[in-house]
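Minimal example, chain plus guanosine-5'-diphosphate-rhamnose.
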Amino acid sequence: MTKRALITGITGQDGSYLAELLLSKGYKVYGLKRRTSVPIMENIQQIKNEIEFIDGDLQDLSSLIRAVQVAAPDEVYNLAAQSFVATSWEQPVLTAQATAVGVTNMLEAVRIVKPDARFYQASSSEMFGKVVETPQKETTPFYPRSPYGVAKVYGHWITINYRESFDMFACSGILFNHESPRRGVEFVTRKVTDAAARIKLGLQNELRMGNLDAKRDWGFAGDYVKAMWLMLQQDKPDDYVISTGETHTVEELVEIAFNHVGLNWRDYVVIDPKFVRPAEVDLLLGDCTKAKEQLGWELEVGFEQLVKMMVDSDMEKIKKNG
Ligand code: NDP
Ligand code: GDR
């Protein structure tokens, strides 16, 4: 029997890698997509003909009910969210509606239409925020530091609550930062790799940055979507931290990217208070022992390899398209 999956956030970074993974496993893939004035298909251009798209929005429960009716999924991956932390201070109400209440909407649609579907919620290391222990694991208490982090804590707990209240197979993956050539250019890794490539090609003069001291546990998105799938293949639903177990500063990221194109970052980087956040998450470092032991999940791409892959991809893209 062909398995059926519904992915929300299919046009985003993770949605595109997950769709590729599920298609390669023979799934019928349905993607929830917002109507936009022009299509946002960059990440899924190569597979768009293999996906069944359903128009909908996490803020519109009726559209989610219809999506679950149409897809009749065995597995639902709830990846859609207002996912940019900096924007969550500018649009805190929208962030709450999409990233927090949107999870309840999706869970309700599944509970009403197809309660036996397995459900994955995209939880985040941002929930650890001002960390109370290092490294962070499944039992580490949350201390979110942004409207986004607060919204994700709600999404996390409502997923657990539906599992406990309605006996649904609902899992949360607490994923640490994961990046790729498909990352939005506003996120720090892609902003840096894109700028290194543009400066090298003479198309940009400087790179304006915020806090270079922040530390993140950065992995490759292609590795992380495999963990999402594995979580839904277990006998019992549970929550798992997914991380690399290494942490690096933003400055190290900048240095590797600029070195890779033969430039000294100190000649180009300017600190701009505009990119400094009202409250910062200073240090993230995950312990994913549980995922390794119980899911058999393994990481393939390391930090330096990831940054170089992104710079190379940006060089190629810019040479081709400008
Ligand atoms: P992206 O920002 O790349 O993608 C977000 C997706 O959500 C897009 O497809 C976007 O659609 C969609 N979306 C946003 N709002 C709505 C809405 N109201 N209704 C329907 N769709 C909506 O995020 P990532 O792929 O990086 O992340 C996937 C998920 O994982 C997110 O929930 C994120 O918060 C979470 N996460 C990400 C981590 C990371 O490091 N990448 C780490 C931990 C958690 P559109 O294209 O129309 O804007
Ligand atoms: P983050 O990712 O907030 O960790 O959330 P982001 O790449 O935006 O920031 C990482 C760190 O870099 C610092 N920083 C800058 N960030 C950006 N975007 N732009 C800058 O110019 C800049 N200068 C310094 C930030 O202050 C921060 O410390 C990501 C998202 O994918 C979330 O959806 C996800 O949940 C978490 O990762 C885990």
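The longest strand covers residues 118-124. Residues 4-178+218-242 form a domain with the Rossmann fold fold (CATH 3.40.50.720).
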